[in-house]
Design a protein that fits this description.
D-Maltodextrin-Binding Protein, domain 2; alpha/beta; 48% helix; six-stranded mixed beta sheet; five-stranded mixed beta sheet; 2 domains
């Protein structure tokens, strides 16, 4: 109970505002949204609540939004079946939670050595990615839209330094998606836990390490109480885009205007969540270091190389699943090379040279 109170207070202290339930319009469409995040959860949970409120606001109450955080209507990882069955109309989640349903879902959150937020959004919006997402989700009676983005995530929290690939062997780590499969190949025992259960497992010693998001989100999780080593950029989630997954039959029952309202609110929140993280990550990284004594580390090249070799095996295994998995992987990898190649020549080149000239980033 005290943990929940802390998270709520921390979120509000970080500049979040209380989100009022949108006014209900008589005779409007009902949209029940279930989330994989606890209520008032810093970053992710606040974003989900903000999106739910915004849909009601933009529709002027014509869409009656009922929002339920994780555990309030169904458990976090029960959200998929809840919406696919039609019991609720939508979930807000990271679609890589559903790789047990189909491994191609991972490509619509994040995959190892994948696209950044800008690259991924370009692929989904203008490179055919949305059509493939529709194809994967459609197999389960769902329609998904992007509704959030964290940016490149931290490599994670560890209770010891990782100086070589051998240091990973035997660790128990919370890391979902294909990134978890990569870690498993390197000798890590991986688990997939809802966000609200990570802290207790780390503090109790049930796990030795965890990935979460980045400094802004991670500061409030207090992982530093059990793991002092905080690793910068990880291979596992270079973008981490989130999904508003809707029951397809319900989506198709909406008018063009109602669908446009939901699309607009989702696009707005995708930008807001990403930009909020970019604005606050530096500030909260400093607080982690200065206030909590967190030791920031980065993985060495030999560790990155081991990640790369394991990732290549994971992608081959993913492709073995089905023709649809091959179709998604082919399209994703082609877009990564085309979009990422151009990015490397312009944005990445500029940022690297700017940081070198100005002495940024250590």
């Amino acid at each position: 109970m005290e943990r929940r109170k802390f998270l709520k207070g921390a979120a509000l202290g970080a500049g979040a505002t209380a989100l009022a339930t949108p006014a209900l319009a008589q005779g409007g469409k009902t949209m029940t949204i279930v989330s994989t995040w606890p209520r008032d959860f810093p970053g992710l949970g606040i974003s989900a609540q903000r999106l739910a409120a915004r849909i009601g606001q933009l529709s002027d109450g014509a869409i009656n939004v009922e929002y339920f955080a994780a555990g309030e209507r169904v458990g976090a990882f029960d959200s998929f079946d809840e919406v696919a069955s039609g019991n609720s109309q939508a979930y807000i989640a990271a679609d890589y939670y559903w790789v047990g349903k189909h491994p191609a879902f991972a490509y619509f959150t994040a995959v190892p050595f994948g696209m950044t937020v800008v690259e991924w959004n370009a692929w989904v919006k203008f490179g055919g990615g949305q059509a493939l997402w529709d194809k994967v989700s459609g197999e389960f009676g769902l329609k998904s839209l992007v509704c959030g983005a964290t940016g490149t995530q931290a490599g994670g929290w560890f209770n010891k330094e990782i100086n070589s690939p051998e240091d990973l062997k035997g660790l128990k780590m919370r890391i979902p998606g294909l990134g978890g499969n990569v870690m498993s190949k390197l000798g890590v025992s991986t688990v997939s836990l809802p966000g609200g259960q990570i802290y207790e497992n780390l503090v109790s010693g049930a796990i030795d390490a965890t990935e979460w998001v980045g400094p802004y989100n991670d500061y409030f999780m207090k992982f530093y109480e059990a793991a002092k080593y905080y690793y910068t950029a990880g291979m596992h989630e270079p973008n981490a885009n989130l999904a508003l997954g809707m029951n397809k039959a319900w989506w198709e029952s909406l008018s063009d205007w109602e669908r446009a309202v939901i699309e607009a609110a989702s696009a707005e929140e995708t930008a807001n969540m990403y930009e909020e993280a970019m604005a606050l990550n530096g500030q909260y990284l400093a607080k982690l270091i200065d206030e909590q004594g967190v030791e920031v580390r980065e993985f060495g090249e030999d560790v990155w190389d081991a990640f790369g070799e394991a990732a290549a095996e994971v992608f081959e295994e993913t492709r073995d699943h089905s023709d649809l998995a091959v179709e998604v992987d082919d399209a994703f990898q082609a877009a990564l090379r085309e979009i990422g190649g151009a990015m490397a020549l312009f944005e990445t080149k500029f940022v690297n040279e700017r940081n070198r000239v100005l002495g940024l980033g250590g």
